[in-house]
Amino acid sequence: xxxxEVNLGPLKLKNPVLAASGTFGFGEEYASFFELEKLxxxxxxxxxxxxxxxxxxxxxxxxxxxxxxxxGLQNPGLEAFxxxxxxxxxxxxxxxxxxxxxxxxxxxxxxxxELSEINGILALELNLSCPNVKEGGIFFGxxxxxxxxxxxxxxxxxxxPLIVKLTPNVTDIVELAEAAESSGADILSLINTLKGMVxxxxxxxPLLGNITGGLSGPAVRPVAVRMVYEVxxxxxxxxxxxxxxxxxxxxxxxxxxxxxAVAVGSANFIDPYTIPRLISDLQQFMESEGLHSIxxxxxxxQR
Amino acid sequence: xxxxEVNLGPLKLKNPVLAASGTFGFGEEYASFFELEKLxxxxxxxxxxxxxxxxxxxxxxxxxxxxxxxxGLQNPGLEAFxxxxxxxxxxxxxxxxxxxxxxxxxxxxxxxxELSEINGILALELNLSCPNVKEGGIFFGxxxxxxxxxxxxxxxxxxxPLIVKLTPNVTDIVELAEAAESSGADILSLINTLKGMVxxxxxxxPLLGNITGGLSGPAVRPVAVRMVYEVxxxxxxxxxxxxxxxxxxxxxxxxxxxxxAVAVGSANFIDPYTIPRLISDLQQFMESEGLHSIxxxxxxxQR
Amino acid sequence: MLAKARxxxxxxxxxxxxxxxxxxxxxxxxxxxxxFLHVRIVDNIAPFLRRPFSIAGAFPDSGRxxxxxxxxxxxxxxxxxxGKGEYLDCLGPLGTPFSPARDIAVSVLLAGGVGIAPLLFxxxxxxxxxxxxxxxxxxxxxxxxxxxxxFLPKKAEVFLATxxxxxxxxxxxxxxxxxxxxxxxxxxxxxxxxxKPMLKxxxxxxxxxxxxxxxxxxxxxxxxxxxxxxxxxxxxSEDDKTGYLRVCREGPVFDFQEVAW
Amino acid sequence: MLAKARxxxxxxxxxxxxxxxxxxxxxxxxxxxxxFLHVRIVDNIAPFLRRPFSIAGAFPDSGRxxxxxxxxxxxxxxxxxxGKGEYLDCLGPLGTPFSPARDIAVSVLLAGGVGIAPLLFxxxxxxxxxxxxxxxxxxxxxxxxxxxxxFLPKKAEVFLATxxxxxxxxxxxxxxxxxxxxxxxxxxxxxxxxxKPMLKxxxxxxxxxxxxxxxxxxxxxxxxxxxxxxxxxxxxSEDDKTGYLRVCREGPVFDFQEVAW
Lengths: 303, 303, 261, 261
Ligand SMILES: Cc1cc2nc3c(=O)[nH]c(=O)nc-3n(C[C@H](O)[C@H](O)[C@H](O)COP(=O)(O)OP(=O)(O)OC[C@H]3O[C@@H](n4cnc5c(N)ncnc54)[C@H](O)[C@@H]3O)c2cc1C
Ligand SMILES: Cc1cc2nc3c(=O)[nH]c(=O)nc-3n(C[C@H](O)[C@H](O)[C@H](O)COP(=O)(O)OP(=O)(O)OC[C@H]3O[C@@H](n4cnc5c(N)ncnc54)[C@H](O)[C@@H]3O)c2cc1C
Ligand SMILES: Cc1cc2nc3c(=O)[nH]c(=O)nc-3n(C[C@H](O)[C@H](O)[C@H](O)COP(=O)(O)O)c2cc1C
Ligand SMILES: Cc1cc2nc3c(=O)[nH]c(=O)nc-3n(C[C@H](O)[C@H](O)[C@H](O)COP(=O)(O)O)c2cc1C
Ligand code: FES
Ligand code: FES
Fold this sequence. Notes:
Distance between the termini of chain C: 32 Å
Shape of chain A: globular
Oligomer: heterotetramer
Radius of gyration of chain C: 18 Å
CATH topology of chain A: TIM Barrel
Largest sheet of chain C: 7 strands, antiparallel
Bound molecules: flavin-adenine dinucleotide, flavin mononucleotide, FE2/S2 (inorganic) cluster
Distance between the termini of chain A: 30 Å
C-alpha cells in the first residue's frame, strides 16, 4: 500500500491532505460525517487573543465558481478555545494545527508563546491577512519589512513548527515567500483569499455587510497554482497548497506545481466528504502509478 | 428615449459599452454579426511597434468560470496595422481606441507619437502589463515609479485622450491609480487579467505553451468590481470597468461601483452578440428606471 | 446526513412557486418542523453553493419529505427543472427546530409568502398533538397565495391577507393578526416565518402583546452545518450584550427576544 | 452564424463515441467538408468556453447537420446528455474547408480515431463528384471503430487498422497506408485528420511520397471566429520564416507543407 506520510520540514503528517483554516470550524461539525483522524490535519479557524464577534451579516456571497466570505475572524478567543474547543478537538483524535491572527505584533507573540506551552499542537499557522492596527492598518502580509519582523519574533517566541500563510493580494509573491523563509518560517501556506466584492444591484449597494470579502473556491485555483509554481522555484521550505481544490485532479495540479501538502477549504461546504474522498483517491492514484511517496511528483511540472 | 452618451473626460462615447482589447481582434470578425457602429468603441488588440509572433501554443486553457490566455500580443505591428487593419476598421464605422504595448519606453513613445498623427483615433489605451526589457523585465504596471515616468512621457508625446490600463496583480491598486492620475492619465481601465496557470495532470506539465497566462471571465469579476470600487473613491478621472462582464446585471455592478463605462472581453467568445444585447438591455434599464444618463448611477453603491 | 433523495414530484403550484416531494427515508424519519435541507442543485460548479430550504413536511411512514420554494435566482430556476425520478443531493435535516410549549393549547402560525413552508409541517405536528391551529397567511396578491387546504390539517383555521386586497384582508398579515387580537385574553404561542421586515414588526409589537413567540430566520449560508460562521444573525443576550449566532445551527428558529434587529 | 439547432438524435454508436444529428437549415446549407461548429454546451458558466466539432455531414435538403464526438471531458460528457428535441447553441459553419483539386480522380482519406468525422462529409461530397474514394481508418482497438458503412458512400473502399490487431491491419494506419502504396504509380490526393503524432508522421513521410495532402488540425479555441489569436498553429512560409496561423480561420485545414511541427 502506498505510503501517504509526508514530512514538511519539522512537521510530520500521516497524509498530505489538510482542512483549511476557517472552513472546518473546530472540527466538531465534520466529525458527524467521518472520523477526523483520517485527515492529515485540521487547521482550525483563526484564533485571536481576545474573543472576536466578527463582521456584520451578510457574510457570504456566491460568485461564479466561488464565494466571498467576510467572517471577520469570529472566534471565542484563546482562553475559551483552550478550555472548550481544543480538548474536544483532541478527543476527536484530530491532528491539530492552530492558525493565529492578531491586530498587533504583541497579539501574535502572546498567542505563539502561550500555545507553545500546550501539548498536542502540531504546528502554528500565521494568518498574515490581518491589518496591523499599530502601523496604520497596513496588512502584515503585504509588506516585506512588517512581515519579516513579525515572523522573526514569533520564531523566537515559540518552539512549534511555524507555517506562514501568505496572502495572494500582492505584486510579488516570490519576494514575500523568500522573506518569510529567511525570517524563519518552516513551511509556507499558499494561498489565502483574494480580495473581492459583489454589488447587490437591486439594492444598489455592496452585498456583504463588510463591503469587501475574501474570494475562494475553484475560481481562484489558476492564481493559486501559479503562485505555488513560482514560489517552489525560489524557496527550499515545503509548501502547503490551497485554493479551489475539490478533487484529485485539482490536488495533483498543486503537487505537480510544487506543493508537498494541500488543504481543502470551500469545497467542504459543497460536500462534507470532500477530504476523506480525496485522501482515498490519492491513495489509489499513488498505487496505480506505483508511487512510494508523494514526494516523487512534488514539483514534477516545473520546467 | 434614454440617452446613452457618456463623457469620459476628453473622450465622448455614444454609449458606455466597449469591446475589450485582445478579445475583439480588429473588429472584422464581429462585423459579420452586427454593425460595429453600435458599440461605444472597439479597443483593438494590443499594438506594438514591430510585428509580434506571440507565444507558442496552446494559448488557451479553460478554467472554472473563466479562461487563461497567453496570446503574447501577437499583432502585425504598427505599419501593417495602419496600412490594412485600421482603414478596414474605419470603413466599418467603428469608433476606435488603440491599445498600445511595448518592451521599452521608446516603443510606447514612438507608437504614441505616430498614432497622434492619424485621424480617426478616439483615444490611446496604454497596456502596462508588459515587462520592461530595459529594466530587467519588471512590469511597467507593477511599479509606481516606472509607470509614472512612462505615463508622463507618453502624455507629452501625444494629443489623444490617454487611457491607462492597470494590472490587478499588485498589492495596492489605489496607489497605482493615483499615480497614473497625477502623471497625466485622462481615464483608467480596470482590470487587465490576473496571472494564473493550469497544469495538465495527464502530461505532468503546464498546459499553456507559455506556462502562465492571464485569467479572465466571470471568475475574476469580484476582484475587478472591488478594484473599481476602491479606485473610484480616490481618483477624480473616469474609470472604464471590465472583468467578467457578460450581461446587464454584471455591467450594473461596475457602474454602481464607480465605472463610467464598461468593456466586455471573454464573453464575446461565448456569445458574439453579448455587446449589442448589453447595450439594448442597458437602454431598457435606464428607461424603466427613469435615468437620463448613466452618470446618475455611477458610484451609487459607494458607502 | 448527506443523501440522494429521489424526486417524486416537482410542480408549479402557483406561478413562480414549486412544490417538491422527495423520497428519502432517513431524512423523513429524522426531520422536525423548523429544520431545513441544504441542497446541491447541480453536480457542477454553477451554482457553486448549496441552497437552504425549510422542510414543509416529513412523513416517516412513506419516506417522503416536502419542500416548497419560490424561484428567485439561478439556483431555484435550475431546481425547477428537476424531473420526477431524478435525484437531489440533500444535506439534512439541519438546524434547531421549533420548540412548542407542552401546555399552550393554541398555536398561532403567522406567515408571509413562502415563509409558510416550515409552518405547514409544524401545523400538522401540532394538530396531531390536539392543539388548536390558527394560521395567518399573507402575500402581496391573491395569485401568490398557496392553496393551503392541500397542506393543512382540516381543523386549522385560516385567515388570509393580501396587500392589494385581492383576497382576504387588505393589508399586511401582521395588521390582520393585530386587528383580530384581544391582547392577553387568550393563552397562545406564535410561530412566524417570512420576510425580515415582517418579522421585525412582529417582534416589536410582541413586546406589548407578550406572547411566547418563535421566529424562523434566513441568512446567506455556505456550509449549513455550523462550521463557517457565515450565516450570522445578531443576537442580544439577557445582559444586553450583542453577538452573533448561526442561523444554520442555533437557528433558524430563534426566540423573538433574542434577535437584535 | 449563431443558431439554436434542434437535436434529432444523440446516441452512443460505439462505447464513448456519440452520433449527434441536428436540424438547422442555414447551417446545413452553408457547410462544406472540413468546416466545424463551435457549440455552447450549456446555458451556464460551466463549462465556460464553446467546444469545436467537425461537421461530419450536412444535408441541405433536409436541414440536417451531423457531428460525431468522443467523450473526453466535462463538455462532451454534458453534450451526451442532450436529449432529442432539445436545442444546441451552434456557431458555424466556421473555418476553411478542404479544397480538393478538380483534376485528381482518386481521393485518399486517412483518419485516426474520431478524426474520421470531417472525412465522412468529404467522402460523400467527393463521391458525388464521381471521384474514387479510398478510406484508411485506424484506431487502437476494434471496439473504437465506427461502423463506417452507415456513413460512407457505397463505392468507397475501406481499409482498417488497429494497434492491437483486433480488426484489419495490426499497427498504425499510416503504416497500413504505406504498405499498400506503390509510390508515384497513381495520381491521388490525401486528406487526413487525427491525432497530432499521426499527422506529423504523415507529413514527414509525404515529403518522399509527394502527394498533394491536406491536414485538418486541432487546437484549443476561445472565440472560434478568428478574433482572439488563441488557436495558433505554427506554420512555415516558403521563404522558411515561421509564424502563427489560426486553426479556426485559416484552418482547420492546412496544406501539409505549411505546418511547422
Ligand atoms: C433556513 C432557510 C430556509 C429557507 N426556506 C425556504 C423555503 O422553504 N422556500 C423558499 O422558497 N426559500 C427558502 N429559503 C430561501 C432560499 O434559500 C433562497 O430563496 C434560495 O437560496 C435562492 O437561491 P437562488 O439561487 O434561486 O437565488 P440567488 O439570488 O441566485 O442566490 C444567490 C445566493 O444567495 C443566497 N440567497 C438568496 N436569497 C436567499 C435567502 N432568502 N436566504 C438565504 N440565502 C439566500 C443563495 O442561497 C445563494 O447562495 C430559505 C432560506 C433559509 C436560510
Ligand atoms: C477544429 C476542431 C474539430 C474537432 N472535431 C472534433 C470531432 O469531430 N469530434 C470530436 O470528438 N472532437 C473533435 N474535436 C476535439 C473537441 O473539440 C474536444 O474533444 C472537446 O473540445 C473536448 O471538450 P471536453 O469539455 O469534453 O474536454 P475537456 O478536456 O474538459 O476540455 C477542456 C478544454 O480543452 C479544450 N480541448 C480539449 N481537447 C481538445 C482538442 N482535442 N482540441 C481542441 N480543444 C480541446 C476544450 O475545448 C475545452 O476548452 C475538434 C477540435 C477542433 C479544434
Ligand atoms: C468561510 C471562510 C473562512 C475563512 N477563514 C479563514 C481564517 O480564519 N484564517 C485563514 O487563514 N484563512 C481563512 N480562510 C481561507 C482558507 O483557509 C483558504 O486559504 C482559502 O479559502 C482558499 O482555499 P479554498 O479555495 O479551498 O477555499 C477562510 C476561507 C473561507 C471560505
Ligand atoms: C484572449 C485575450 C486576449 C487579450 N489581449 C489583451 C491585449 O492584447 N491587451 C490588453 O490590454 N488586454 C488584453 N486582454 C485583457 C482584456 O482586455 C480584459 O482586460 C480582460 O480579459 C478582463 O475582461 P473579461 O473578463 O471581460 O475578459 C485580453 C484578454 C483575453 C481573454
Ligand atoms: S452556514 Fe456555515 S455556519 Fe451556518
Ligand atoms: S479561437 Fe479565437 S482566433 Fe481561433
